[in-house]
């Protein structure tokens, strides 16, 4: 075996001080790389197709802005239930409300109304459809908007002998916008 004419290299006899120096140097390199990151890349399109963000839809109509077609005299009206959602596919929400006259006792009949804005950028809300007339003498137990349809549970009375506090009939109904009007689906009648 031939021996080297060079003296022994320092790294062939590793000592703890060598390992600490190497670890410190590596830590300094990693820290330096973390501090000297390039700026974040940004993509931009020059020429060609331009995209613009769609304007945010108008907020749902506010039930407090509307005068309802109820004959309440000095008692005034109250919105008992409300639900919002896009009913006609224009990507702007409508509001559906169940409103009735204020009453000290009993169950006053409700009207169910659809509210919309006069135009997409107008702030004023207005009644655009009546789904349940107060003359039908129904009250509303539940009201929801799902998948572009209005659903409600309506409470009523089987006869004039039933006390006005305690409806004894329940009917679940659904309305969907079709063409230029709301169409009521077949109702499910259930006794209370």
Layout of secondary structure:
Elements: H1 16-35, E1 77-85, E2 94-101, E3 110-117, E4 125-132, E5 139-146, E6 149-156, E7 169-178, E8 181-184, E9 188-191
Antiparallel strand pairs: 1-2, 2-3, 3-4, 5-6, 6-7, 7-8, 7-9
Supply the key terms.
mainly beta, four-stranded antiparallel beta sheet, 1 helix
What this model shows, in words?
The chain has 192 residues and is mostly beta strands. The protein contains 1 helix and 9 strands. The radius of gyration is 36 Å and the shape is elongated. The termini are far apart. A hairpin with an 8-residue loop joins β1 and β2.
How many helices? The count is: 1
What's the SSE pattern?
A: HEEEEEEEEE
Helix content: 10-25%
Q: What is the first-to-last residue Cα distance? A: 106 Å
Shape: elongated
Structural class: mainly beta
pLDDT averaged over residues: 80
**Beta strands, count:** 9
From the alpha carbons, calculate the radius of gyration and give it in angstroms. 36 Å
Low-confidence regions = none
Strand content: 25-35%
Task: Give the biggest sheet.
Answer: 5 strands, antiparallel
């Amino acid at each position: 075996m031939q021996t080297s004419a060079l003296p022994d290299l320092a790294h062939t006899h590793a000592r703890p001080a060598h390992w600490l120096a190497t670890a410190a140097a590596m830590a300094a390199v990693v820290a330096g790389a973390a501090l000297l990151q390039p700026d974040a890349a940004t993509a931009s399109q020059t020429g060609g197709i331009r995209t613009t963000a769609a304007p945010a839809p108008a907020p749902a109509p506010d039930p407090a802005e509307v005068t309802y077609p109820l004959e309440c005299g000095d008692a005034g009206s109250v919105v008992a239930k409300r639900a919002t959602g896009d009913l006609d596919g224009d990507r702007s929400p409508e509001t559906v409300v169940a409103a009735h006259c204020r009453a000290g006792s009993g169950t006053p009949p409700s009207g169910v109304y659809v509210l919309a804005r006069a135009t997409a950028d107008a702030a004023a809300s207005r009644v655009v459809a009546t789904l349940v007339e107060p003359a039908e003498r129904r009250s509303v137990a539940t009201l929801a908007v799902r998948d572009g349809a209005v659903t409600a549970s309506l409470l009523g009375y089987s006869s004039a002998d039933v006390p006005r506090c305690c409806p004894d009939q329940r009917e679940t109904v659904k309305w969907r916008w079709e063409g230029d009007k709301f169409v009521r689906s077949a109702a499910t009648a259930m006794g209370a």
